Amino acid sequence: MKRKLEGQIAIVTGASSGIGAGCSKELAKAGATVVVNYPIAQTREMAEKVVEEIVADGGRAISYQCDVSKEEDVKRMFADTIGQFGTVDILVNNAGLQKDAPFTEMTLDQWNFVLGVNLTGQFLCAREAIKEFLRRIRREVSCAAGKIICMSSVHEVIPWAGHANYAASKGGVMLMMKTIAQEFAPKMIRINSIAPGAIATPINHDAWDTQSHLQELLKLIPQKRVGQVEDIGKAAVWLASDDSDYVNGTTLFVDGGMTLYPGFEDNG
Ligand code: BGC
Predict the structure, then answer these.
(1) Which of 19, 79, 131, 175 is most buried, by CB atoms within 10 Å?
(2) Which residues line the pocket of ligand 1, CB cutoff 6 A?
(3) Which ligand 1 atom is nearest residue 217's CA?
(4) DSSP 204
(5) Which atom of ligand 1 is nearest to the CA of 255?
(6) Which residue's alpha carbon is at the smallest distance from atom 10 of ligand 1?
(7) If you take atom 12 of ligand 1, which residue's CA is the nearest one?
(8) Strands 90-93 and 146-151
């Protein structure tokens, strides 16, 4: 049977670890050739390990360094990918980070750093991807001219004290995603978000690393388990595939029910 993403080229940003690495592996299993993006030289080895795993599993991938908050870097990554593979079909706009601080202690650097990667980075990558989708129109590998999956968070709707920069960036991702989905739907470009809940990755290690932290965290998750990167990777494959061809401008919450107001489980 033909795999769902056979013959398609995907760029996954922030893919040297966590959700980005998980999405890269699932997309590759579904047949995509994956550009495993990593931000800085220190994360090169981790990205190369992701590539090695994909190749060992019979898939195709390369690693690529690019700081998504820098316009020239992003342009170079898209130009090189198109030069090497001919085009781009799928962008997983995943790169994201946290620099947490109580609001009155948050520095402008912490604010700008998080907004720069999480929101400006998604803008820059989406813009280059859409330019390429518009340039080559549709090709036979998919019903769509191109697909973008923005990695959002449950914090696009759940306020999060002590994380104003992060929550603001994800709220911004939500309306950027919907706005560009509206703008480019007539061109057969599909743009959606995934909003992960608590997925076990380095970004939230402190939230599940001990039994007591884990028990606290599970109170926020009706399904009573922490998510795994595969949960997100499989959702990304679906949103990138023609199985979701009529899905556009929506956020798919993959959160074990975290957005279901778990505090109201037995009260209220
Ligand atoms: C954050 C994690 C957090 C999760 C649920 C994610 O967007 O990056 O640190 O565990 O949301 O609160």
Answers:
(1) 19
(2) 98, 153-155, 197-198, 203-204, 207
(3) 10
(4) G
(5) 5
(6) 198
(7) 198
(8) parallel
For the chain, list the domains and their CATH numbers: 9-256 (3.40.50.720)
Tell me phi and psi for residue 221, to 5 degrees: -125, 100
Nearest to 10, CA basis, from 25, 248, 252: 25
**128/76 Cα distance (integer angstroms):** 10
Q: Quickly tell me which residue has 């990558």 as its tokens.
A: 125
User: What are 66's two structure tokens?
Assistant: 């690019």
Centre of ligand 1 to C-alpha 65, Å, is 25
pTM (2 decimals)?
A: 0.98
CB atoms within 10 A of CB 224: 10
Task: Give pLDDT tens digits for 114-143.
Answer: 999 999 999 999 999 999 999 998 899 999
pLDDT score recorded for residue 137: 87
Q: Which of 204, 226, 260 to mutate to test the pocket of ligand 1 (most atoms within 8 A of CB)?
A: 204
Is residue 268's pLDDT more than 80?
A: no
Residue found under tokens 């956020």: 251
pLDDT tier, 267 (very low <50, low <70, confident <90, very high otherwise):
confident
